[in-house]
Write a structure and sequence with these properties.
The chain contains 4 helices and 8 strands; from the N terminus they run H-E-E-E-E-E-E-E-H-E-H-H. By secondary structure, it is an alpha+beta fold. It has a 4-stranded antiparallel beta sheet with strand order 1-8-3-6, with no helix packed on it. A hairpin with a 6-residue loop joins strand 4 and strand 5. The radius of gyration is 31 Å and the shape is elongated.
Length: 233
């Protein structure tokens, strides 16, 4: 027996706004980031990081398909760009297809970093090392695109239309969260602008008063000097 899923509404948003957000979501491309690159090996390798923007509490699914490579070990680490530099997970010697899931702790970028270590017992010429690498095919799904709606549909016995409505609900919620985040940033920037303007104004008044005080002091100082020299009465 199939269960009905209700589409939630958000307080303060009229129906026409939700309809507009729905149309925008349908026109918006999925938030999926895919990249393929070659990672050269080294005894002390440099990091290769791929960064993607993610909101707080956003689900991030990382799928890394690492190609074969002799005497090479690829390590992966997922972290964010926040002030705390949170490291979500770190895994060594990944091979083949590896699927990892994390949840963003703060607003900012989430980075997927790779290092390709050359085995200590490996002995190759410089020319051969220049031709060695491991191919990495990386997919990063963020937010609603990272949710497996097929599994949810099977678990809750949802129909195709109900599954699509559930997907649309998640996308609309992401858009609402994005608008709320932009609103908070706008308010923060407005406060910063007002504070900066007030400081500039205070500094301008301080400069004017300082120059006026310095001018008055110079007048009295010169007047006293001229009196000592009997140049004026």
């Amino acid at each position: 027996m199939s269960s009905r899923s209700s589409v939630k509404t958000w307080p303060g948003l009229p129906s026409w706004t939700l309809l507009l957000l729905t149309v925008l979501c349908l026109l918006q491309p999925p938030q999926i980031f895919a990249i393929k690159f070659a990672l050269p090996p080294s005894r002390f390798p440099a990091e290769k990081c791929i960064w993607n923007a993610a909101h707080t509490h956003a689900l991030v699914i990382v799928t890394a398909n690492v190609g074969p490579g002799v005497s090479q070990r690829v390590d992966i680490e997922i972290r964010d760009s926040g002030a705390d530099k949170n490291v979500y997970l770190s895994k060594k010697d990944i091979k083949g297809e590896t699927r990892l899931a994390v949840t963003a702790h703060s607003e900012g970028d989430v980075g997927v970093c790779f290092k390709n270590y050359l085995s200590a017992d490996a002995s190759y010429t410089t020319e051969r090392l220049a031709n060695m690498s491991r191919i990495i095919d990386l997919d990063v799904d963020i937010g609603a695109d990272a949710i497996d709606y097929n599994a949810i549909a099977n678990q809750e016995s949802l129909s195709g239309l109900e599954t699509e409505m559930r997907k649309l609900e998640g996308i609309v919620k992401e858009v609402v969260d994005e608008l709320e985040y932009l609103k908070q940033r706008e308010e923060r920037f407005a406060d910063t602008n007002l504070s900066t303007n007030q400081r500039v104004q205070n500094f301008a008044w301080f400069t004017i008063l300082s120059l006026a005080g310095l001018g008055v002091w110079q007048i009295f100082h010169l007047r006293a000097f001229f009196k000592r020299k009997y140049l004026i009465d």
